[in-house]
Amino acid sequence: MSGLSELEQRVISEFAEREGKILSPYATPSASGVRRYEEPFPNIRPSFSRDGDRILHSAAFTRYIDKTQVFSLSENDLITHRIIHVQLVSKISRIIARALRLNEDLVEAIALGHDIGHTPFGHDGEEHLNNEVTQKLGDESFYFRHGVQSVRALDKLEGSHIPGTGGRSLNLTLQVLDGILSHDGEDVKPSIGPERGKDWDTFDGEIERKKKERNVTVVPMTLEGCLVRFVDTIAFLGRDIEDAVVIGLIKADEFPRLLGDSNREIVNNLAMDIIEQSRGRDEIGYSARRFDQLRILQDFNYRRIYNNPLIKTQREKIGGMFDALYRRFLADVKDERTDSPVFFDHVNLIDRDDPAQTYLRKTPPEIIVIDYLAGMTDDYFVSIFHEIFTPRRLPFNFRQIERMTGLPKKRLMQLYEEEQGK
Asked: Could you tell me which residues come within 8 angstroms of residue 359 by beta carbon, excluding any fewer than 6 positions away?
């Protein structure tokens, strides 16, 4: 604890002492947090609490605000966006973690970061990126997975203010990144126990497997990671039903009432079942009865909501937009067209503190474009498509351009010719 004052050292000791009294034997102590890069500066915050703060302050977290959850392109302001889903996962996870005496800071950090790698237009966008883009990278298979991209965003693309990382990482703990990588809320299981003992080599190997194998899933290394994986499902199951009722996709009396009459009851019944089944055990699980009910409700959601053709009417258009933007930005990166949005809205932001332009020079152009597309919000995606591919009207009178720029037409033409001659 060198470099810390006596008060700071006492606060840290009190944090550790409190955890020792409260946490379950199966919980993950904050002191066990393992970082990829050693950090030379002291900090009184427990490691997982610090990770949550770093995620909150990341640019990728800010983009949650305009990424849709299920119902893309809806004009209804009352439906769930990605940021609400993430907050629900965080809140529900912390309450269950408290009941099970798990580390609340760890579940919160995992929950806050678990969907950061989601593309615009949710799972449909992810599928477009696979169908239209990632299968064109060459002979070696490459599958885009939002969990993998979440880790990449936090571990490779952000964090220029973190000393000792080379400006390429938020330097989150292995336990947090592992929970984000393995959250896979769509892959519902009756119970999951942690695969403890992972190191950075194991973790990096799991990332490579998920990129090369289409349906591979990995198991969290902590009980807290297992919990967030379960809560990811709980948080969207009933909420998506309520959103579908709001927009008139289904009627309020159509869904199975096995788990309750509302999202509140669904969440409460599943949360209480997890607490009852998991207390004092090194696994997170449902009772057989609740798991069967959950699967029935999940099947209803897929049939009547997620795969409903009424919300897929724009899917083909969006897929064409992904393909067009990918091709355009790939050419821009290869030709180093620095006036392209892929440079001033993406590459330049990552390489801004790096004179060697490490990201641009050492990252395959295809991956640069995927990073850019995956980081877009829904509105930005549509806006940038129109900026590039939709023709703009000419001014009513070209003197308007002179007034707007403050330059005479002759000078404007000279600048244009100079640009064309580059």
From this structure: 157, 168, 347, 350, 351, 368
SS3 309: helix
Q: For the chain, how many residues are written? A: 422
pTM of the model: 0.88
Which residue in 65, 87, 89 sits closest to 77, CA to CA? 65
| Alpha helices by DSSP H, 247-364 | 263-278, 288-301, 315-334, 341-342, 348-350, 358-362
Query: CA distances (Å), 364 to each of 138, 159, 346, in order?
Result: 12, 21, 14
Do 93 and 111 form a contact (C-beta atoms < 8 A)?
yes
- The CA–CA distances, whole Å, from 141 to 75, 146, 214, 234, 398 equal 37, 16, 9, 32, 51
Q: What is the pLDDT of residues 373-402, one digit of tens each?
A: 999 988 899 899 999 988 776 655 666 667
Cα gap 317→104, rounded to integer Å: 42
Q: How far apart are CA 316 and CA 322, in angstroms?
A: 10
Q: Which domains does the chain have, with CATH numbers?
A: 14-311 (1.10.3210.10), 315-396 (no CATH), 397-422 (no CATH)
Q: What is the radius of gyration, based on Cα positions, of the chain?
A: 24
